[in-house]
Amino acid sequence: MYQDFLPVAIFIGLAVILLVAPLIIQYLVSPRFNKKGDKLEIYECGELPEGSAWVQFNIRFYIIALIFIIFDVEVVFLFPWAVVFKDLGLIAFVEVTIFLGILIVGFIYVWMKGDLDWVKMKLKYASGRYADLGTEESN
Questions:
Q1: Which residue segments constitute the domains of the chain, with CATH numbers given?
Q2: Cβ atoms of 95 and 85 closer than 8 Å
């Protein structure tokens, strides 16, 4: 009975080795002395860094990137269906029509919400540095 657990024990042992070995190798290889000067400089593509690394990006970049990834991944599901379309028949066509309907409704929602607009000039509650742009109520 205990022979059935041998592959599990081997798998756990291999997992522990694969977790601990890189840490040990990193400790042995990494420099422990002379951690000043050039060793602490940020290296990026051979160029010296200019300015701060804390650059603020517009949140719209992330929203559009996430929307692209979501719809891109969902559309990838259509390729296997297209390969075997003739073999699956009418039920598969109905299922994909429902799937595409859900995608289109999601796309229309994102579009109507205005998340695909790169620059929104109308702000709901404009204050501070955005007060000059105007609000939805004032326009």
A1: 59-133 (1.20.58.1610)
A2: no
